[in-house]
């Protein structure tokens, strides 16, 4: 039994080391989880409201969703993607 617990702890530690996850908070509420090494994010807040995301996305897809829900017209799409990507990846800095 003791070896099973040790293997479980080692597996969880390995997963956290490989994925390097960060939880993003907004006003004390968790809004999404981002993996700094594997470039994916899991979104759940606002999933059933207007413009919300629910699921696991690549960082490019999450940034595109942010861009499509932002009504900024005077900035180019490339610049919008750069801003959105830096917003999504902010916890990894």
What is the general shape?
Answer: elongated
Content-based structural category: alpha+beta
Helix content: 40-55%
User: Numbering strands along the chain, what is their spatial order in the largest sheet?
Assistant: 1-2-3-4
Distance between the termini: 39 Å
Determine the number of helices (DSSP H or I, runs of at least 4 residues). 3
Oligomer: single chain
Element pattern in H and E: HEEEEHH
Main beta sheet:
4 strands, antiparallel
Rg computed from alpha carbons, rounded to a whole number of angstroms: 16 Å
Q: What's the number of extended β-strand segments?
A: 4
Roughly what is the average pLDDT, rounded to an integer? Answer: 76
Low-confidence stretches: none
Strand content: 15-25%
Please give a structural write-up:
The protein is α+β, with helices and mostly antiparallel strands. 43% of the residues lie in helices and 23% in strands. It has helices at 2-19, 59-68, 77-88; strands spanning 21-26, 29-35, 40-43, 55-58. It has a 4-stranded antiparallel sheet with strand order 1-2-3-4. A hairpin with a 4-residue loop joins strand 2 and strand 3 (40-43). Helix 2 (59-68) packs across helix 3 (77-88). The chain is elongated. The termini are far apart. The model has no long low-confidence stretch (mean pLDDT 76).
């Amino acid at each position: 039994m003791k070896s099973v617990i040790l293997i479980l702890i080692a597996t969880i530690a390995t997963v956290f080391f490989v994925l390097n996850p960060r939880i993003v908070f907004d006003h004390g509420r968790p809004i999404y989880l981002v993996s700094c090494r594997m470039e994916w994010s899991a979104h759940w807040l606002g999933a059933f409201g207007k413009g919300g995301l629910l699921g696991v996305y690549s960082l490019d897809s999450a940034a595109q969703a942010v861009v499509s829900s932002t009504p900024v017209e005077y900035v180019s799409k490339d610049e919008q993607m750069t801003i959105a990507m830096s917003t999504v990846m902010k916890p990894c800095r």
